[in-house]
Amino acid sequence: MPLPWEALIPFGLLTTMFAAAGTLLNTSKMAQNQGKRPRHNLDAWDDMMMDRDRRLTGHIRGQKSDTTPPPGFETSSKWYTESVE
Amino acid sequence: MTIYHAGDDSQARPYIDPTPLPDSIPKVQEIGTSSAPLKSAAFFIGAYCKDYNEDFMLCKQDAKGDPGACLKEGRKVTRCATDLINKMRENCLETFDKHWQCLELHNQEYYACRKDERALNKCMFEKLGLTKTIPGSPKGQTPIHDVAKPIYTTVQR
Question: What is the first-listed, main subcellular location in coarse terms (chain B) (predicted)?
Fold first, then answer.
């Protein structure tokens, strides 16, 4: 029985392309999240905290545990001045 | 109620509040700790600052929507939380860092970081005498952070 080896060429191409697409997307996502896995299942609180992290560290995924805020942190929140919807 | 909106990142300059607190109100340093360490410390803040937090919430309840009524209590809450985080960093820096870094890698979910959490809980109890208690958890049962083999872990079975 002859092996249909020619069918393996598109199979290999498809596998490579799916893998390339997945790897690229993963690399892009990780690069946007400072090398950490992206957040998921976010609610309004998480969004607010991530915006607070951005005000504290300059990036939404930046983290720091010391209690000294950067200068101007007190007045960098627009939370209080946003209109009520 | 004010609703939170995601910040407008397209703005070139960062936002500065045009109406900061007047100088007549005593200043308190805001907490500069970001979300993951705060989440890691949350139950210890709850244990350590219980009196101040309850004072603030009762004051808010009595204030009937007056935002300026509880500034004094609010400052106490801020100071207490800052104090606790500083103490945690002095006494349990290693376990604390490990736990919040684990949280940050796992979408800030407690269930994924029980091992680091137990190390932190142990250190916090030994050094500062604080225990993690989950409010409203059923009486007489092992709290979820102490269950040896929980059903829901990062590995699906």
Answer: mitochondrion
